[in-house]
# Entry
Amino acid sequence: MAECIFCKIARGEIPSKKVFENDQVIVFHDIKPVAPVHVLIVPKKHVSDLLSLEQDANGPAIAWTLFQAAAEAAGKLGVDKKGFRLINNCGEDGGQTVDHIHLHLIGGKPLGEGLI
Ligand code: 5GP
Ligand code: ZN
# Structure
């Protein structure tokens, strides 16, 4: 996916404020944070959204990789003790603006019980 912004970040062609990366995943700070901690957890393989992931033979492995990376990022960012929220926006009504699946990890303050 030559023009995908998250693929470019994963390849290092666009700079990002990286938390960590491995062979499967990259975690970096969102450019427009909505909370004191706001990072994106992005698989290096281009998969456009959750519905595509469900159709991907490697979907289960990628999904687990994303959750593992989220837990690792929470520890590295110091939000593991007080908690955090994971969000996946899917499609137009879901508010997805980058068509490369990702989790938002937000925290660093009480987020309340409401989701919207
Ligand atoms: P979505 O709306 O698709 O769930 O989330 C996309 C997120 O990517 C947004 O929160 C947006 O601020 C972030 N974003 C878009 N472009 C860039 C970029 O070039 N660098 C970084 N670090 N974040 C980006
Ligand atoms: Zn991509």
The helical segments are 5-10, 50-55, 59-77, 91-94. The pocket of guanosine-5'-monophosphate (ligand 1) is lined by residues 5, 14, 16, 28-32, 40, 89, 95-98 (CB under 6 Å). The mean pLDDT is 97.
